[in-house]
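Schema walk-through. Below, the input block comes first and the output block second. Nothing else is stored per chain. Lengths vary across the set, and this one has 490 residues.
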Amino acid sequence: MKRLENGQEIIVLGSGLGGLIAGTLLAKNNHSVLLLKENGYHPSYTIKGYRFTPFSSISEKRLKPSLLKKISQTLDLPSFIDSKEKERQTKIISRQLRKEATFQVVLPRARIDISPQQSLSQQEWKREFPDEAAQVEGFYHELDQTQHFLQKLKSKKKASPFFPMRQRSFIKNIFSFDLFPKDKMDSRLSFFSREFKEFIKLQLTSWGNLYSDQFSTSFAAYVLLDEMNALTSNFDLEKLEKDTYNQFLRYGGRVEEIDRVKKVEIRWQKGQTLSLDRDRTVFRSKFLIFNSPLHRISSLLGQKEKGLSKWGEKIKPLFVLVPLFLGIREKVIPVGMKDLLISILEIDKPYSDGNVLLLSLSPRGDETQAPEGSRALTVESLMGLEKWEQTLLVDYQHRVLKHLYHLIPFLESHIDFVDFQWASEHVPKWSYSHFLYQTASDFDWREGVVPMNLFKNVYFVGKENFPQLGLEGEIFTGLMVAQQILKKYS
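--- output ---
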């Protein structure tokens, strides 16, 4: 029997936001695009009137309005394009949000609100770290100076539209000078208390998808001062993905659901060929965009896998973020607890096994997220990647709940249900993208880790491109990959 053949200009393997953005922009420019999505993978979960969306970092729960506007205008997303009235209301809301905390960091002996207003944050630091208030003040003063330098770079005429990313030629890399501070956070914070060091590290780690002690001072200034000053509250990533997906279809993009790709053949002249597992269908394309975690696609490439090995060695998934979904009653939420929260239970222990949690509460009173008088609580905990198949999930769930009961007293008596089944079914799938990575070598945080162009006409859009920038990096990568392909047609 002859195999069925499907020829396309461009194939996107995976249905994450980065791949959706790239595919939609290409389809908008009248190119034939096929999106292959995994059968049975659902990016969200609805049960008993509760809606849950797992997340990889706090950047997926907060987004800059300017970035959302850029996507909307580029892809013509009608529901996200501001009218004058909506823009006026957005500015009013933004001014109100500047007076509120963006999220909360909980340490064993401190609970700190992160506020866009530096004066309010200063009150928090002085209250929680009174013995080192002068040191903390000096630390933030240095970050403030670095932030001003970043803003000057951003305002230059030749600045990259995808600030703070930069792409420079080999010659410019040799002969250019970088005026940013060279010191790393581990050395810069060596004279601070363990609690304050963890306070900074938790913010930097949870902003993106990277676990490190080597964050640069310039990156710290970008995240701690620049990013937190202009973020939308209650950003709905799932809605953005759905609207982009629908726009992709309106532009003529095609979608097919598949179980698993068995093999990818990359041929310089004849294009790319994808063979399916337990299926005789073959897909062919001139361009191929991978939108799945790097460590899950390398085994598909046969001899070409060696071409990915250096990147696979450079950045590895250290933790998988395991979601736990809880339906809880509103009255149990402690006064002052924020809707987005990062917590470490014991500073002297590793981040895994329920010791560090990222929590997201559905907005109060939003009945599209939870029944009246209740809240949907999504809890992301860290598990060592190699432990996933060996860990008894019942015991792991118990450790996570122990941490939660410490954060929210009397929670046990106000839980409608606890769901771990979604995680059991979805974490093993090739579309699952929620990992915390670690780099094996130093890199420039504005140039990223894994290149977007892996081979000729083969591109990669994923969290490993710019892991430290979180959702922002994934959005920009999707736009840049589409632009690179469009240039080849021009």
